[in-house]
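Throughout this chapter, every protein is written as a compact record of paired, labelled lines. An example of such a record is reproduced below:
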Amino acid sequence: MGRCAQWLSHTRLYSGFTLIELMVSLVIVAIMASVATPMVQLTLQRQKEQQLREQLREIRRAIDAYKKAADDGRVKKNADASGYPPNLQILVDGVEDAKDAKHARIRFLRRIPQDPMLNAQSNNGLGQVTGWGLRSYDSPPDQPRYTQDVYDVYSLSPRTGINGVPYAQW
């Protein structure tokens, strides 16, 4: 065997990582993962907050459309009623159009969106989705309560957003 062949066989024998090199590599990967984890969590929270904004906007538009239809005489209402829907489910089920000769149904939502800040959405059997807080027209803004109609909705999540405002106040 020549010197070159001896050198090649010697380098093949000792090629690879030492234990110290492996440990240093693992420490570097762990540090990088610990830096990336909060960024991923923040990104996920931002996505959920964006969903919350969209869901609230969708429900509020449907409530406003119902109110406009009631004011235009397309939805029957009592003289003493506010014109807002009695619950969220009626926005999905729809109401008869009082001005249409065929009495077609007007629907304002395809489905009631789920609050992304809560893990589960449940229905209490009365047509009211318990995943959202409901505020009636006659309730004060600082103490929302549901009595006879749905003027506004809010998240029931006790958490606070990235902006420092509790989700219930969005």
Q: What stands out?
A: Residues 63 and 84 are 7 Å apart (CA to CA).
